[in-house]
Amino acid sequence: MSGAETSSGFSPMPENALYRNKKLYISSDHAGFDLKEYVKDFLAQSGQQIEDLGPEDTQSVDYPDYGIKLALALTEDPEGIGILVCGTGIGMSMVVNRFPRIRGALCHEIYTAKMSRAHNDANVLILGGRVIGKGLAEDIVSTWLDTPFEGGRHQRRVDKIESKNAC
Hints:
5 strands; alpha/beta; single chain; 5-stranded parallel β-sheet
């Protein structure tokens, strides 16, 4: 075990994590279930407040049902954040980004996780359970949670996305 890991094998979440005090909703389909459970356990180690919106096992389910659950939870709790996991992340991305005030970012590496927060103020992280492994998922989640939105010129752009005239 390296010095950067806990006795459970998880790397510890930084104490200054940006979203440490925000409620995090997590959901997946059957293809993302195992990674969802791993990420949930990883986050629980840091004391993150988590609400698991399902599914309960790896039985086949329709990803739109679980993406919609998470989007509706964030509609009710606009200060919340979310993580979605499906096979590639593409399906969940298509579902969740149809909802107002949801800015979901599909991230398969650390740079896009950082930029999705810093420049786009993403409030939903989307992962591909069949695309990335557990170690990379930890790094992506940690980076995403710990990266602040830069605001400034980026706020203007996010405001354009959120405006009723955007589409």
